[in-house]
Amino acid sequence: MKRQNARKISVIIGNPPYNAWQDNFNARNPNRPYKHIDDSIRESYIAKGTAQNKNAVYDMYTRFFRWASDRLHDDGVLALITNRNFIEKAAFDGFRRSVEEEFNEIYVVDLGGDVRENPKLSGTKHNVFGIQTGVAISFLVKRRGKKGCKIYYCRRPELDTAIDKLAYLATSKLSGLNLERVEPDKKFNWINLSTNNWADFVPAVSKQLKSKKSGTKDQAIFQLFSNGIQTKKDEWLYAHNDIALTDRVTWFANRLNEIRRGTASSEQIKWDRELERRFRSGRLLEIDAQNIHDASYRPFVKRPFLYSPELISVMFQSASLKPPRLQRSEMPPLIAFHGMQASQPFAALAVSAPFDICLLKTGNGSSLGVPLYRYIPTGERIDNITDWGLRQFQAHYGKAPAPAEDVSAELAKEGATSAAASAATPPSVPDGTSPPQGGRAKKAAAITKEDIFHYVYGVLHDPVYRETYALNLKREFPRIPFYPDFRQWAEWGRRLMALHIGYETVEPWPVSRADVPDEKAREAGVAPKTILKADPDNGVIRIDGETVLSGIPKAAFSYRLGNRSGLEWILDQYKEKTPKDPTIREKFNTYRFADYKEHVIDLIGRVTRVSVETMEITEAMKGARR
User: Comparing C-alpha atoms, which of 493, 505, 408 is closest to residue 451?
Assistant: First the structure.
């Protein structure tokens, strides 16, 4: 070993495994720790990047990249077949910066085949290994005494089959490939470079400001932002009703306590790394029903949730998003949006805290939230919009003209019939955020932090903004432009927020309902077959074997949050699904759609209203000045 470690290695070739973390901690086969390599990754790929999701950067293949880069001679070639994520994912900006500094030439042959990024692909048909993870071949070259780095890249067509790609590799030499020279941008992106005025906008959030390492360049509109809660045991900590939730979490707590006493086996528990660490403390667990809250689980889907720091895997900054003694009726508002690396189109949704990390997730990435207020342990409420952010808006706009008419009159003119039409701000939106009622407002008014909160929400819904800066929104946290008509955008944002947070109280859309008895099911004494399938082209939703809803406007299906419409999120979340957790499947599989059928039909009518009016507002945005 000493002789081997003393040798100079000029070529390293490998096809390392691709797995950032194991899916099932109960399997007791976590990735082996490599302290020296992980320290090296932290000092290079992590330190030089802006990664929010650091787990991905500790993938086994990046560990191999790090080890091989350190072990390679000053003159040498590193040749690896790996996951292709490092090419363009935001989490790997530090990796790209590091390899550019450490090597003199980089050649990347991108074979694509990432099924998670493009559901139209088939792993068995389009991926060279028949897997769902995209694949790339990389050659990284060190030349002693040389300075600078030249990067070359080529990619196979997205719909090439595995057979096509293998034939291409078998008949090609590296010297004959049509490689393009890559000129990385300031953010160390290699491909899909955006050329726009993104850098001129105001940062919505900043990692440095959040961690209180702020300087002038690190200022942002919001002081605090947070991922949603990550339970790693959703089937235990969420349920469709309070009774079901209480039953399962009580059983879970009792079994944990029995395991501590040595009177039960640990096999029926859903373990994760954090739960195991807390378990070693030896303290018995008690369940407090006062900690059950209605959490925003998915778009327009709330579920009873046990807010238990002892059982939740990762809390992030969620404790600062709500009062310490949160009552179930107290639901502080926040703006949730897709985090970096999301594979689906950007989306934002105003919800009530607490919220789940997968709130908007249909692929890669997570959901982040920025609240209007944050809370300290004493319970004191503090503005989350910074004074610096307020000064930027006030300096740019001065005293912005207030709306010419009150909101009630404006919405009435447009024929709106939702809760927003009455200008009734939901309880979760603080008092004082609505424009003055009763006649014309003042000609000019100082911009407030509540105004900025609504303005940001309006801008994040701007279709032109989302399209123009789509690539930026995948790689960075949102930045906010100053549009000419501040009050108009703030008003649009306020109306959208009233709709989205108050979706359960808006006037339902007049959806037509047809019921035809399922005689076979009734004779058998069972509920009709659950269908919950939408036909957007015909404006129809089939509820079950007896009930069909029709007359749903196409616009309702056009309002999309990620890869699904708001209505389709509801249909997905209320389907009967076999629980993944074996203990839940055996002991607590009590959910039946028939018990929630009327609630879902009512919810569909209300979210149809929300969706149609949201699309009306976003259509109006397209014609606004920018």
Answer: 493
Which range of 22-26, 163-167, 252-256, 415-419 scores highest in mean pLDDT? It is 163-167
- C-alpha to C-alpha distance for 439 and 504, rounded to whole angstroms: 29
The lowest-confidence range among 180-194, 233-247, 455-469 is 180-194
Q: What is the largest CA-CA distance in the chain?
A: 87
Q: Identify the CATH number of the domain in which residue 139 sits.
A: 3.40.50
* φ/ψ of residue 340, rounded to 5: -60, 155
- pLDDT reported for residue 411: 37
Q: Distance (Å, rounded) from C-alpha 72 to C-alpha 62?
A: 15
CA distance 565 to 548: 19
pLDDT band at 210 (very low <50, low <70, confident <90, very high): low
Buried b (16+ CB within 10 A) or exposed e, 595-616: eebeebbebbbbbbbbbbbbbe
Of the pLDDT bands very low, low, confident and very high (cuts 50, 70, 90), residue 218 is: low
Number of domains in the chain: 4
Tell me: the pLDDT tens digits for 493-512? 999 999 999 999 999 999 99
Last residue of a domain, one of 480, 501, 522: 501
Report CA 315 to chain centroid distance, whole Å.
15
For 353-469, where are the alpha helices, taking DSSP H only? 387-397, 407-413, 449-460, 463-468
448 and 358 in a common domain: no
What is the structure's pLDDT at 9? Answer: 94
* Domain presence at residue 198: no
CA neighbor of 392 nearest in space, from 463, 467, 449, 460:
449
**Burial of 401: CB neighbours in 10 Å, binned 0-12, 13-18, 19+:** middle
Tokens of 17: 């495994």
CA atoms lying within 13 Å on the CB side of residue 278: 17
Q: Are residues 58 and 113 in the same domain?
A: yes
DSSP at 57: G
Mark whether 520 and 444 lie in a shared domain. no
Task: Give the tokens for residue 547.
Answer: 């009930």
CA distance 208 to 386: 14
**Two tokens at 583?**
């203990």
CB 356 within 8 A of CB 341: no
Give the tokens for residue 59: 């993938």
Q: Which domain holds residue 590?
A: 512-613
Helix-helix angle 486-501:597-622, to 10 degrees = 170
Over residues 270-290, the pLDDT tens digits come to 888 888 888 888 777 888 878
Say if residue 355 is in the same domain as residue 445: no
375, two tokens: 């809370």
